[in-house]
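Appendix B. One record, verbatim.
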Amino acid sequence: MTRSYLWTPAVMLLAAFVEVAVWADDGAAVFIREFTLIRRDHLHEEPLHDSSQKAEDPSSRTARSEEDRDTLWDAWGSWSECSRTCGGGASYSLRRCLSSRTCEGQNIKYRTCSNVDCPAEAGDFRAQQCSAHADVRYQGQYHEWLPVYNDPDNPCALKCKAKGSGLVVELAPKVLDGTRCYTESLDMCISGACQIVGCDHELGSTAKEDNCGICNGDGSTCRLVRGHYKSQHASGKTEDTVAIIPYKSRHVRLVLKGPDHLYVESRTLQGVKGELLVDTSGQYHLENTSLDYQRLSDKEVLRIAGPLGADFTVKVQFSGGADSVVQYIYYQPIVHRWRETDFFPCSVTCGGGYQLTSAECFDLRTGRVVVDQYCHYYPENVKPKPKLQECNMEPCLASDGYKQIMPYDLYHPLPRWESSPWTACSLSCGGGIQSRSVSCVEEDMQGTITPTDEWKCLYSPKAAILQPCNAFDCPTWLAQEWSPCTVTCGQGLRYRVVLCIDHRGLHTGGCNPTTKPHIKEECLVTVPCYKSIDSLPVEAKPVWHKQAIELEEEVSVTEEPTFIPGPWQQCSRTCGAGSQRRVVKCQVLLSFSQTVADLPDDECEGVKPAATQPCYRTPCSAGAGQGGGSKKGETPEREDLHDWEYEGFTECSESCGGGVQEAVVICLNKQTREAADQRLCVSSRRPPQLLQDCQTQACPPRWETGEWSSCSATCGVGLRTRTVACTHRPSRDSNQTEPLRPEDCRHPKPSPVQACNRFDCPPAWHTLDWEQCSQSCEGGVQRRRVLCKQRLADGSVLELPDTFCPSKSPAKQQPCATHECPPQWVITGWSQCSVSCGNGIQRLQSVCRKRGEAQTLDPKNCSLKAQPSRIHPCYLRPCDNSVKPDPVILAQRKVSIQWKKGKKLQLVVGGYAYLLPWTTVVLRCPTRHFRKVHIRWLKEGKPLSLPHVSTTPLGYVKIQQLHASDAGVYTCVAGRAREHLALHVIGSKQKLSVPESRLRSGGQANAGTADVASVLFNQYDHIVERLLELRDFVQNGKDIIAEPQVGKNNMSTLEGESAGGGLSSPLVLAADAHRLDQIVHSLSEGQRGEQLIAQLLSELTVTQGESNESTLHPPEAAESATRGPALHKPGVKAHGFGPRSPVIIQHRKVGAAPPSEMLVHVGLPALLEKPVASLELRCEALGNPEPSLTWTKNGKELLFNRRVGLLPSGSLRIWVPSKADEGLYTCTARNRFGSASLSSWLQVAGSKGRNCDQGSGVVANGLICPERTNGSEAAELCYGQACALRWQTDPWSTCSATCGGGSQTRSVRCFRGPGGRSAEVASRLCLGTGRRPSDTRRCSLVPCARWGSTSWGECHGQCVGPSTATQHRHVYCQDTNGTKVPYRMCSGLHRPSALRNCSTEACALQWRVGQWTQCTATCGRHGFQSRLVTCAHRHTGRASREHQCMWRARPPSWQRCNVAPCGRGECRDSTRYCEKVRELELCPLPQFKSRCCHSCRNT
């Protein structure tokens, strides 16, 4: 159990409290409320940032701060043990109040701890807490509990769901501290409350990962990459590359629109390639990376949260038809970074100089230095500026004050111009400039580059420092045509689509949002409305009206691209009717980083919300109106209050080519200047209709659209198309149009494709491909899956139950492979011995036959390669004339299988052995006519040379603690006689180890002798693996079944059970090799494998069980007392193993029972020598699903009556058996995977043939018939409180072992009567009240652990000496079976070293020096000379990096020379670089003129 060692002792104590509470009650689950230590109303206000878990200074408990003294708090105590050992837990610290009154503040604070990832096998923490309640009854039943995640109401309550039933229960009010609140968050539950945890694992921290995956990062370590791809089917290719997404990229999203399909290729840094074909929606995995693929009717969406485990190449497979478009976006890590170097050597040797650092481009993936161009590729990368420091400040000795200038020789090039990378362009479009710095630098002999005066580089032109950039046009807004008005009369709305188009004609971002044209405006239809549209019922309003209302609803950002509208701006007018705007963006939420990214508008589905709307604040003053004021001298009382007025014109009927517009007439309130109901105005005074010409200019070319075609699909979602052409009307009066080029019309072009029939299809049958035929010949069956599916309006497909599809289901199976089977080889037996005396051989004989026929065919009809060819020795008798008999090895043709762990085993050569690891094995080689001291042993044809394998003087081989590497063929050699033993090691999950030599040679012995190669090493592997699976099947059954118990004095079939409660079973099963050959032959003929293997296991356990009475019996699990036998009881299901065909458990002895009863397990004969009251034929079977039991007598169905009937367990009960009951009783167990049968013969001796039907109620010997009396002991009856029968258990004993698995026992007794007056009765009387609690259980299941290590790795670490490097190995903690366990289980044991020095020729490195150069001066104590110093291999001379040679001091690379003083008064050159000084015109400078007197004399 993984959870058992992941919980701390405090957690285990809590589990123990729950268990005690459960057993203290009468079977119902009781959950003890956790005692609350303090109030934690203000926990979130406590600063919790200390996660180092350092031990607190004891003095801090008494040293109080000023605040503590003021508030009378004691100092904080030490931190408690962490609530978890991995995965993030919580620890707390307490303090006490020193005052008699209440102290202000808290007495507890928390911090996070154990913030390391749990091992993969640990499982989920919340799931462990749910599974801890599996042995607690809930509503009288046991359940396997699964966790319920992300509860929005109370995420810190332990809510679990019962597997299979869907029952959701809150098993505890609080989860354990450290449990995550939500699956996609680091927030954790502490004391039942969800606390915020940042990505820095600090409580209360708001730190989050940026898009690059860096906690609290600024996003500078990655860059956003966007791209657009369009397929070109005309190229003739079948596939094309969309994008290459590099290793460690995150938040990848690709959308393909069109008929083509996506697929992904991968390539790791080591060059390993992989491929992933995605065809159905779901989650896929490639190179430790999860990919979420969604396939819709019109597009494919691929999302990868990342980080990518390799370089991914996304490709598109062409499927014909129209071209597809792929848009993608991802965050790419910047893998090449600048890294600052160490300081280079000083510029001068004395007198004060300077030294600089540089920067080198470093590849984070390979850890190598690369050329600078890789770092220049990323504009975000800024090369660090060199750092400058002074050096060699000591004064020069005996100097004339001249500082040595580095010479320009072979290792010192001339000064040169060096430029920095171009800066980012000043403008992203429309033409900008970018600059760079250009400086003069010089390089010394060590390669140090330093800036110097510009005049030194003037011999060559200086590079430009400015250049134009981004000269292309900026993106502009392009508005599509307006939609029709949303009303048929009066005032309504109309909409249009506005796109941002760049210079390439692609829809991208980058346009100025303040200049975006509005997408919604009012429109007026010149048809009078007879009734206000607002007074119409809601159902009569057009569809657009409902959509317009829905647009105003608040929308939040989700993980799907969604239009997110911003707040409305202020109204454009302070009075009257105006308009207001808002910003609407297409945005998506990146889940783990919780950041929002902007996307192009076409990434979002549905209609984009309106960006403008009309608004009205207050009416304008009367002076702002038009006309309608009263004339001077007239009284308003005499005039009507309302009158007609013109208010503007309708929109022009044509956008070009000449149209008309009508004046709008409204009824106006003269006082308020507001529009009123038209009924308030006198209709006879309504002014006449006014029309005027408008838009008289000629029309430009425009798009002309045709009628939509019929939809391509009748339901789900289909497409319809239309023709779109660019046309032009030559004149205003012309009714004909002329076609033009598409370039002549204004973009964007109307869409020629539109979705249609977007409603759900009715359910229909969908068939999958046929599976492979069940047989290759003579008639087989192939099956296929037929599913009922429904295609929805969003393009997705929903799988439904079969009852939803109305028509008849298509065929699910059909016949196949009806042709006749070819002939095959059939083994007939062994030939006679080749000699009549002495040692000979026998050959395996076989004939060619057709399946099921006895006629022998010509051997040519069968394949010669498949013919069995085996030989084994034979010995009939000794020869009379033999002088000295040949040596003979007494081999045993046995196949030995170790069934359980044991300290030591002895095996005889001649067969096969399948053993568990860590077992000591002795291989014996019994011989005749040969001295044992001369016996030789080989493994795989080679002499034994392993440290833990030894040979004794008696010819034995002893292998100490068997390892997986010990598997192989062991050969005993006695003179010319040889016998082999094929040794296998059973590994984890019952897999068999294969020797390395056979792995390298494809399963055959490599360099051994021919007889070793002839051994069929894997001949019986299949059978043994099936036997081991069946053993695990039975043993794993202990988690859900228990052995049925019988009477008080009945030991059932476990008389040999140890006191510890463990069930005994044979240590080794030994099968005859000939028997296994028969099974192999039977399996090759197509017989059922499960039945043959189960029968073989039954034979082996019956004949070879040592002292145990039941060798194939399900042992009990801990707390199986509340579970009982699930073998035959209806409704109880076994969950512990996969589907299995039935197996009937066979026992060796007749079970013990009271004198008047008899218990016989099926498979054993039942001989009744004297009359008994009842006979039980017990039949126990295993299988998944649970098998059903049926009984037959003498091959016919058994008829049941009052005397012969079935027990609830499925066993057969016969009351007062007589001669008429004699016969062969057969128990058959069946489920859908197969059946198994086992029989018992019943014989009754000495019976007079009387039975309970004679009417007396009493038979011979005074036995009482159960139907005639109610007072017999066999069927005792009672009434009222006297019938209160119950099981009573004593406490469990201490465990027999501290680790590795032990056992506990307890006493189980039957009591009757009410509490206080109960009395112990026979145990069989309680059998009807429920299952008998178990009296044994396993304990201390934590495996015994020790340190293990892998072999040492290659010797290729850092060089630490001459021919010496370091090598590593992996050290881990493992149990006795070699399974890895957490490190803490090996704490306290000496841990082996994981690092050591090693000898390697790769570190045969040394400093290699070149010749000294010519001295730079002939005199004057200022000359020096240099040489090349490199780190190179001693033998090959190949250069290496200098740090590999740093274990030895580096030789000097320069030295002084020609230090003799120069003569006085002579004008001569003291350096050989004076010719360069003259060419560079440096003679005017005093320091050069004095050194180059002769060369500079005529300048």
